[in-house]
Design a protein that fits this description.
Layout lengths: L2 H16 L3 H13 L1 H24 L1 H31 L18 H13 L3 H9 L11 H33 L5 H21 L2
Length: 206
């Protein structure tokens, strides 16, 4: 891959990562309700899921089938259940204020945040088709060189991870600025509906 192709790939991945969706809502929710560390950890899980599908796209559909029939399916169920539980907990929240500092938010849950991000990404099996269609624009899929693979994986980490982490930091900042504005419960319940829906979608896709 040359510099121009690398920049184009970065732009495509960063733009798609910035589009509001279930993954963005997950990162924002975890950052706003459990602390920025959880938001960043959820973003890490999302990036790991993308890397899995990228590697599968490079290895071919045969590897995809073998992996999907085993650990990935189990991970989808676990992650989907976690997302569903998280969404229900948010919808049942009775707090009337948005906490103004990390100490006011529920800490911990980093492994769960990582699993949720990973499962959410792996729950979208169409991602393998997307990457399988995108990558041939930049490399010869029949002979992917280690250098090209390294560039693609690195660009994905920086582009997708950078955008998702920016969302996590922004959500944390907004919570700090919001202080005692009385919208916390409504925001959490709306986020809970989206996150629970993502959990159901992930389980159904298994």
């Amino acid at each position: 891959m040359n510099t121009f192709n690398t920049m184009i790939l970065f732009s495509i991945l960063a733009t798609l990562a910035a589009v509001p969706g279930a993954s963005v809502m997950l990162v924002v929710t975890r950052s706003a309700t459990a602390g920025v560390a959880n938001g960043i950890t959820a973003a890490t899980g999302i990036v790991l899921g993308d890397l899995v599908y990228l590697l599968l796209a490079m290895l071919g559909l045969g590897a995809t089938t073998r992996v999907t029939e085993g650990a990935v399916v189990a991970l989808r169920y676990l992650g989907g259940a976690y997302l569903l539980g998280m969404g229900i907990a948010l919808m049942r929240s009775d707090e009337s204020r948005i906490p103004s500092a990390p100490a006011g938010r529920r800490p911990g849950g980093l492994p769960g945040s990582l699993l949720a991000g990973l499962a959410l990404t792996l729950g979208d099996a169409k991602a393998i088709v997307f990457y399988g269609s995108l990558l041939p624009l930049f490399v010869d899929m029949g002979t992917v060189r280690p250098r090209d693979a390294g560039i693609i994986l690195s660009v994905t980490v920086v582009a997708v991870g950078g955008v998702k982490i920016a969302y996590a930091l922004a959500a944390d900042r907004l919570v700090r600025l919001a202080g005692n504005v009385r919208h916390g419960t409504g925001m959490k319940r709306m986020a809970g509906i989206v996150v629970a829906g993502a959990g159901i979608y992930t389980i159904a896709g298994s």
